[in-house]
Design a protein that fits this description.
Length: 191
């Protein structure tokens, strides 16, 4: 693993500064509207200028299955001010084995998070948040993925799962062997 090829710990994706409270309230009211609190793992992307998005695996209300949920704003919520932002939403069932594997990856990445020795403030860019509810909620994030191959691969896998959520040819997700192999390899790299 490269010197800074890891995530940084955060309390949650919504525990930033006081000045961000209004923005995070807007995110909760729009992007997260309709998502369950029975979260297994969650990937939140908040770009400075592009639309925000969330990928979440949650337990169904009945408790007998898992759901893969993906929601993306059609425009940036931050810049919408008081205007309502349309949200595109996808929801499918996902296999127990896929949930366990994906959450294990999130847990490994989040539990390996540590603070950068030379942390600097970046005002514009994209924040990537990873949360797992493995032994209580744990979250980590990154905003600068340059020279972070492991973190880039983690984000890439998340977008492969996003693509599965948008695939109209199926209503149930089961990770194929190629994706399972990528995830298992990343898990080993985060150990």
């Amino acid at each position: 693993m490269a010197q800074n090829d890891f995530l940084e710990p955060v309390v949650s994706p919504f525990a930033e500064t006081v000045s961000d409270i209004e923005y995070y309230q807007k995110l909760k009211r729009s992007l997260f509207n309709g998502l369950s609190n029975l979260v297994i793992c969650q990937f939140v992307v908040t770009p400075s200028f592009n639309p925000e998005e969330v990928l979440q695996i949650e337990r169904s209300v009945s408790g007998d299955s898992y759901l893969l949920c993906y929601r993306k704003a059609k425009s940036n919520i931050w810049y919408a001010k008081d205007k309502k932002v349309e949200i595109v939403s996808y929801k499918k069932t996902i296999s127990d084995s896929s949930v366990l594997l994906f959450n294990k990856l999130f847990a490994k990445a989040v539990f390996k998070a540590r603070y950068y020795a030379d942390s600097s403030i970046i005002l514009d860019g994209t924040n990537f948040y990873f949360s797992t509810w493995y032994m209580g909620q744990k979250s980590a994030m990154t905003y600068n993925i340059e020279n972070k191959v492991l973190v880039q691969n983690l984000i890439s896998v998340c977008y492969e799962v996003v693509a599965l959520s948008k695939d109209e040819s199926t209503t149930h997700i089961e990770f194929n062997e190629i994706l399972k192999s990528k995830i298992e390899s990343l898990i080993k790299q985060f150990e």
